[in-house]
Amino acid sequence: MHSKDRAVILFDGACNFCNASVQFILKRDPNGCFQFASQQGDAGRQLMDRYEVPSSINSIVLIKNNQAYYKSDAALQICKQLSGAWRMCAWLLVIPRPVRNLFYDVLARNRYKWFGKSESCMLPKPEFRSRFLE
């Protein structure tokens, strides 16, 4: 898959839960549909600016088909592309966004408390480095 055709996931590089989520996605994305950028890095900040993502956003961001998805929309759009049973999570999109995002917001608000915070972004394994934007 050509890198221009890939969707980009912007994640909080200091969040242990977010870093674990990136590792989870990498293992279940055999076709290389996703590229990744830390929201704190240059590429991530540039993409957030280009797609007018509020700096106060407390969410993973998916940029796909020239559109930015946030919160539960981003998570479920990502699941649709993963291998295995994770694709079935897409049915959750029928639940109204405000209800889905209530649950998402609880996790987002507590992610540092529950999962911890790193002082620096994770370093990807060599086989995945080409999928990370700098």
TrEMBL record:
One of its GO terms (molecular function) is protein-disulfide reductase activity. InterPro entries: DCC1-like, DCC_oxidoreductase. This is Thiol-disulfide oxidoreductase DCC family protein. It comes from Xylanibacillus composti. The lineage of its organism: Bacteria, Bacillati, Bacillota, Bacilli, Bacillales.
